[in-house]
Amino acid sequence: MIEKTTPEVGGMGYPIKRKEDSRFIQGKGNYVDDVHLPGMVYGHMVRSPYAHARLKSVNTEKAKELPGVLAIITGEDLAKAGLAWMPTLFFDKQMVLATGKVLFQSQEVAFVVAEDRYTAADAAELVEVEYEELPVLVDPHKATDPDAPILREDREQKSNHIFHWEVGDKAATEKAFQSATVKASVHAVSQRCHPAPLETCGCVADFNKATEKLTIYLTSQAPHAHRTLFALVGGIPEQNIRVISPDIGGGFGNKVPIYPGYVCAVVASLTLGVPVKWIETRSENLQSTGFARDYHMTAEIAADANGKVKALRVKTLADHGAFNAAAQPTKFPAGLFSVCTGSYDFANSFCEVDGVYTNKAPGGIAYRCSFRITEAAYLIERAMDVLASQMKIDPAELRRRNFIQPEQFPYKTPLGWTYDSGNYEGALNKALEMIGYKQLRKEQEEKRKKGELMGIGISSFTEAVGAGPAHSFDIAGIKMFDSAEIRIHPTGKAICRMGTKSQGQGHETTYAQIVAQELGIPASDVIVEEGDTDTAPYGLGTYASRSTPTSGAATAFAARKIRDKAKKIAAHLLECSEADLEWENGKFFVKGASSKSKTIQEIAFAAYTNIPPGLEAGLEAVDYYDPPNLTFPFGTYICVVDIDKGTGEVKVRRFVAVDDCGNVINPMIVEGQIHGGLTEGLAIAFMQLIDYDENGNVQGGTFMDYLVPTAVETPHWETGSTCTPSPHHPFGAKGVGESPNVGSPAAFVNAVVDSLSHLGVKHIDMPITPWKVWNILNEKGVVT
Amino acid sequence: MAKKQSVHVKINGRERQADVEPRLLLVHFIREVLGLTGTHVGCDTSNCGACTVVLDGKTVKSCTMFAVQADGAELLTVEGLLQDGKLHPLQEGFKQEHGLQCGFCTPGMLMSTYALLKKNSQPSEEEIRWGISGNLCRCTGYQNIVKAVQYAAGKLAEGGAR
């Protein structure tokens, strides 16, 4: 266990209140749309109403005549500068502004710049675009049919097939299936949805023609990587680009990619020499920027007569829309989907994924998850329930029989991952106890006799977060290390800067607590700054629950470098040798003479005023941390639902979440992350869907029809924890922000299916709407 | 561009006047003409409530009103909650109970719950949940927002109404 500091110091484990809150509760946050620069003008995007159409002409004459219009950029204009296309984050390219044809509804066609946002919107209406409609491909299952229209004429390969990826031992897995006593399978769709952070994407691009410096205020989860990409793609010297991510109103993966609107604002500012603001509307956000999921998955489990699993076979079709704009490490076309063996000890496994193009918005990004691991966790937890139901074994018992055991860690999965630590049964037992599982099963039995519908769903998920290690993980070639820089001022106060970027996770508080823990400087004396590429050390940003595992570790190591130097200064001040010194509670003291001591504050002052001979002045350090492995948080979630037989409405009666994310920095913030992630899991299970009609018209493209939960639909969450530290992280932490979103969808769906399983229901695809349930009840003749 | 019209409001206790286009949304008037950027825009369909302000004692979604419709009105935004340099118990409650994460919905939440507590000083959990059902939050799962409002209700009961 981590030794606790005093509450005044506020190191690890204290639920200290967040430093960032003071500005947010007073309306003093500074989000991108709050940035107002002298002479700033506004951009507005012209978008395609068609999902697939030949672009015959773009006429900007009328729009240009409107007073206040400054410029209109078309795809042809960008093509002259070689910028009509840009690389995606995954070996593909994407049109910035359309040339030749459009490939999805709401695709970017022209960018209008005007003196104010209303005039820009007016002028966009006056841009005349002539389209010739083309046959539309919506169903990914038809993408490789011989008569499917070929969407991407720019590619050499005249096919809508993007990639085939497989991992595992196919032959051994097949052999295990041939000899298996029991086989269970499920086809499950992890539906297309969108992270929809409450703040949409946007930027202010400010090119100063005199200094040739381009400053971009950007809704970016990865400001440093974005700076490098702007330099590489735009040909602007990197020292002349400054990306500032100010306060970010939620990200959840949506703000990892670079979007056409950003590029257009930059081009407009370079051309006009004035700051250009572009803020997308909610509809633009939902219809054109990074969607998530759209995985059509089949899982098959081979097991013996006792329900002991032997092999797992997974086949998946991934719909990427018009461009493969997935934001994931280049080695992994399906991200961490191959963590699909989950918490269970499978001897053999084989997993294959095929990606295809359709006439839909490009993606898919990792929505509050570590590169497709939500899809993986959902699939295995659903499949385990299908097996349990088929074998008439209690789902908790089936999981217990198959868990990887604590002594098996580090555990190598058949698909190549090495889990760092875990105690899955511990979390399951705690969750069962918290919810009163046995009693609930009795209640369910009694209710069934009376014809009432109640279900209990379990999910014992394993997460994989904290990418790097650099040998396997990168974004567009840039390795996924991360960084921290700590500077101690003469008065013993500190400023820290990191390569990550909070979007609400509370970094200004938690990183300060790490410094407090390591150096004994009170967290209240530590300022944390992120998001300005001119001042912060280089890093890959915040997503995949990687901030604590990477920059958090870097913070600890930078602090330890400072402590090493502080020891030299303390030895000088106390006139002893370093070997005689011991560190405790923010001070060095002479062994056996604890009254002879120097606090970190006294040492900091000496670092600038009484420097030992031969030692550099100052007290600061930088650390770039490349983790040796991912970390693997886990937990068990249990959900209880009641079904209204009249309306098909599912009521979540209770939800218990037991999480194990190793050692905790701030339990208040961890609990807040879990509440939020569970709510997004609820949304995915019951509400959120971006659908398309047969013409490729997006359904669910506004908050009127893309349903996100309000306080009324959201249940009261009950949280608990176990603690299994990561053995390779400097303070045993694992990361937590995404676990609840990764682990919970299966718990909700398992609960609903469990409530109907006695009627022969084996699976229901998400989102489980009242209409879907009502239809099932009708079909089974139990609707009242 | 249509002829500009004069709009006069009392906002956070201060008289302000400007000539604006009749079609200018109240939220853009508040944010861009008056320079009070605490009020946010999170959608274009009146669903999210990030733009909620209090107008003559009632909450409105300021993205769904024209500035000219607010002519002569008294407005309260998040910037006006602080009084005599002291946080309103709701502001305190949001911080104490971890009722915010990214902070983008927070100003709208504060204004909705401010109006709720004016109407109902001791709301039940269900009443609080319905009271904020016009405000979306993507980060907190609402549970700690409920606690923040309960905290404020408790404080207000202790110390008299504000």
Topology:
The complex is a heterodimer of chains A (784) and B (162).
Chain A: H1 21-24, E1 41-47, E2 53-59, H2 61-65, E3 69-74, H3 75-80, E4 85-87, E5 93-95, E6 101-102, E7 108-114, H4 117-126, E8 128-133, E9 161-168, H5 170-178, E10 182-190, E11 202-208, E12 213-218, H6 223-234, E13 241-244, H7 260-272, E14 276-279, H8 282-288, E15 291-292, E16 295-303, E17 309-319, E18 348-356, E19 363-365, H9 373-391, H10 395-402, E20 411-412, E21 418-419, H11 424-435, H12 437-449, E22 453-462, E23 474-475, E24 478-479, E25 482-488, E26 494-498, H13 507-519, E27 526-530, H14 547-574, E28 581-584, E29 587-590, E30 593-599, H15 600-609, E31 620-625, E32 634-643, E33 650-660, H16 667-686, E34 691-692, E35 698-699, E36 718-721, H17 739-756, H18 770-779
Parallel strand pairs in A: 1-14, 12-13, 15-19, 17-18, 26-27, 33-36
Antiparallel strand pairs in A: 1-7, 2-6, 2-8, 3-7, 4-5, 9-18, 10-16, 11-12, 11-14, 16-17, 20-21, 22-32, 23-24, 25-26, 25-31, 28-29, 29-30, 32-33, 34-35
Chain B: E1 5-11, E2 14-20, H1 26-33, E3 52-55, E4 58-61, E5 74-76, H2 89-96, H3 106-119, H4 125-131, H5 143-159
Helix pairs in contact in B: 2-5
Describe this structure in words.
The complex is a heterodimer of chains A (784) and B (162). Helix content of chain A is 28%, strand content 25%. With 784 residues, chain A is α+β, with helices and mostly antiparallel strands. Chain A folds into three domains: 152 residues, 2-Layer Sandwich (Aldehyde Oxidoreductase, domain 4), CATH 3.30.365; 186 residues, Aldehyde Oxidoreductase, domain 3 (Alpha-Beta Complex), CATH 3.90.1170; 244 residues, Aldehyde oxidase/xanthine dehydrogenase, molybdopterin binding domain (Aldehyde Oxidoreductase, domain 4, 2-Layer Sandwich), CATH 3.30.365.10. In chain A, a hairpin with a 5-residue loop joins β20 and β21. Chain B folds into two domains: 76 residues, Ubiquitin-like (UB roll), CATH 3.10.20.30; 71 residues, DNA polymerase, domain 1 (Orthogonal Bundle). Chain B has a five-stranded mixed beta sheet with strand order 2-1-5-3-4, with helices on both faces. In chain B, α2 packs across α5. Chain B is globular, with a radius of gyration of 16 Å. The model of chain B has no long low-confidence stretch (mean pLDDT 96). At the A-B interface, α1, α4 and α16 of A face α1, α2, α3, α4 and α5 of B.
